[in-house]
Amino acid sequence: MYSGLDVDRNYWSDYTTLHPEATEVGRTGVWDTPYVCVRLNGNEGEPIMFDNHPLVNPIKGAGAPEVDDNTKPAPTASTEEQKPELFSTALIIIATVAVFMIIVGTSLLVYFKKHK
Length: 116
Known about the structure:
alpha+beta
């Protein structure tokens, strides 16, 4: 008798290892084979978690794709954070300030040399 937890539309990192034969249903972002988790339960015959619509790709934020053949696949979460172009902006600002300081410093040296 199954007394586990029913979950729906989750991404499972070990899914393709457990179900290498699975395929995506149309372009829904959902695998065609349910995910059954038994590893946390001591009894091998009793599943503790069952997902009828496991996701092909992880998603960011809330909202799993609907199970519909017209739905596009779920977006893949990037393992690298998107780096803003802050580095190039900061480099330009630092270079501008450095040039300004050189000009001001040189101007002050010339001014004080002439007024000695």
